[in-house]
Design goal:
Helix content: 40-55%
Shape: globular
Distance between the termini: 30 Å
Structural class: alpha/beta
Number of strands: 16
CATH architecture of the largest domain: Alpha-Beta Barrel
CATH class of the largest domain: Alpha Beta
Radius of gyration: 20 Å
Number of helices: 14
């Protein structure tokens, strides 16, 4: 089954569509949980399915360091490696390398990125070709081009340089993606998305879209947001850039996941988004109330509170357990607390996204 995107309905700029992949159909707009190490922390894939998940994102950088793309390839790709048969998306590792550069542990030039890893402190070099080959071997349904993500506070000149490098790298990524097909290193229907850069500068964002959309890529992403800019700058850039992207291709906004972010992204015309936040904050005892506001389960007000986390939520955590019980688990450092809070937080965001999709059809 080949990769396809169908735009079904629009309401203003908001869109509802359908992405067909070799491992299933994804209804958009869609929130993608992040399985960094090919697993969602504190959750099984059955629990993930019960939340309504349609596609999962895994991290190329971390999986390259451990266990390595060759072992995953030997297992038959991420789907066989994890025994999870719904669609996977892998990022390129560019954001993680950006994070290392912030720490002074990465040097970037036109050839690629040299960095010190966060596990053993070893030196590595990843080129655009390397990143694509890694993702080809992992076998995800959707993979991302290797991009240079500048800091949110970078100057116009530095942002332009990173953007132009991203464009050159995109061409190299596409060539390597074709070479990997000829070398039988990847699934035939694996889709390569290109990433728009340009920071907070509208003219650069427009230049980036114009340069990248010359290529007939299956989809396009907006990268370089939530990397140090103000909330207002992020909103303005997403609202400006999204309508410039092709209407007949999926639009992916990388790394956003609050209720406010999701609503604004969909209103701007975004189809896909991901974030580690809902499960990360769950492990620290935070959950979303019915309005999407973060609450802390450890607070004393929940000691004898026998109501669910959210009385309007039908997830496993809310239909089976009370705030008081989950608070007890968290204070006792029981792993089940992180599991239940993660189930609820993911269910909340997925239900929110689905409800907006229904509104688009109304």
């Amino acid at each position: 089954m080949s990769f396809q995107f169908e735009l079904i309905k629009k309401k203003g700029e908001a869109r509802a569509g359908k992405i067909t992949t070799p491992h299933g159909v994804i209804e958009t707009p869609v929130f993608m949980p992040v399985a960094t190490q090919s697993a969602i922390k504190a959750m099984s894939f059955d629990q993930l399915d019960a939340c309504g998940t349609e596609i999962v994102l895994s991290n190329t950088y971390h999986l390259h360091l451990r266990p390595g793309e060759d072992l995953i390839h030997q297992a038959g790709g991420l789907h066989n490696w994890t025994s999870y048969q719904k669609p996977f998306l892998t990022d390129s590792g560019g954001f993680q390398i950006f994070s290392q550069s912030r720490l002074g542990k990465c040097k970037i030039n036109d050839q690629g990125a040299e960095f010190i890893d966060n596990l053993a402190g070893n030196k590595h070099f990843i080129s655009p070709e390397d990143s694509i080959t890694m993702q080809n071997k992992m076998g995800a349904d959707i993979i991302m081009a290797f991009d240079h993500c500048p800091d949110g506070g970078a100057s116009y000149e530095a942002t332009k340089e990173a953007m132009e490098r991203t464009h050159r790298w995109a061409e190299r990524c596409m060539i390597q993606h074709q070479n990997s097909l000829e070398q039988k290193l990847r699934p035939e229907d694996q889709a390569l998305f290109l990433i728009v850069q340009g920071g907070i500068f509208k003219d650069l964002r427009a230049q980036s879209v114009a340069a990248l959309t010359q290529h007939d890529a299956p989809g396009f992403a907006i990268g370089g947001v939530s990397v140090g800019e103000s909330r207002e700058d992020i909103d303005e850039i997403v609202k400006y850039t999204t309508p410039l992207l092709p209407e007949n291709k999926p639009r992916y906004l990388m790394g956003i996941g609050t209720k406010e972010d999701i609503v604004k992204a969909i209103e701007a015309g975004i189809d896909m988004f991901d974030c580690v936040m809902p499960t990360r904050i769950a492990r620290h005892g935070a959950f979303f109330d019915k309005d999407g506001v973060r609450q802390l389960i450890k607070n004393s007000q929940y000691t004898a509170d026998f109501k669910p986390l959210d009385s309007s939520c039908a997830c496993y955590a809310c239909t089976n357990h009370s705030r008081a019980y989950i608070r007890h688990l968290f204070r006792s450092q029981e792993m089940l607390a992180a599991t239940l809070l993660s189930i609820h937080n993911l269910s909340y965001l997925i239900k929110l996204t689905n409800s907006i999709r229904e509104e688009i059809f109304s």
